[in-house]
Amino acid sequence: MSDERKKVLFLCTGNSCRSQMAEGWANHLRSKDLIAFSAGVNPGKLNDRAVAVMKEVGVDISSHIPQHVDDFAGLEFDLIVTVCDNAKELCPIFGGKGTVVHNKFDDPSEIIATEENTMAEFRRVRDEIRDFIKNLEI
Questions:
Q1: Domain residues of the chain, as ranges?
Q2: Is 84 a catalytic residue?
Q3: Is 17 designated active site?
């Protein structure tokens, strides 16, 4: 029996925050119709604050490992979602029938503020990504 779920790749610059949250939300909220992956064009380290704010809502992304988009070369996706402008500009061409969609989310790791305000920004972006995933059409 084949898996009929749609494959989605969330692509960001560092695959450390926004794309990881999107992958986590998609696999948490849409596991019946989606299989989600994430990657970066210049992967870094998984963002601890992203892990923390996702844990607050019951989504564990602590075991996620940032991956380079080239790690997915040769795979076919039904949808590729770029979540930042840099990834949109550098998004490689994937073969197959996949559609590329751009939905920019602010980068909460760029905020320079108190810890309380920084975490509030991470929560705001987390919730925006959640709403996007809930309404994502493939």
A1: 6-134
A2: yes
A3: no
Q: How far is CA 13 from the centre of its chain?
A: 10
What topology does CATH give the domain 6-134? Rossmann fold (3.40.50)
Q: Write down the catalytic residue from 91, 100, 111, 119.
A: 91
Residue-wise pLDDT tens for the chain (138 aa)? 457 999 999 999 999 999 999 999 999 999 999 999 999 989 999 999 999 999 999 999 999 999 999 999 888 899 999 998 776 676 666 555 678 899 999 999 998 899 999 999 999 999 999 999 999 988
- Three-state DSSP at 48 gives helix
Question: Strand locations in 31-137, DSSP E?
Answer: 34-40, 79-82, 99-102
Note whether 12 and 38 are within 8 A (CB).
yes
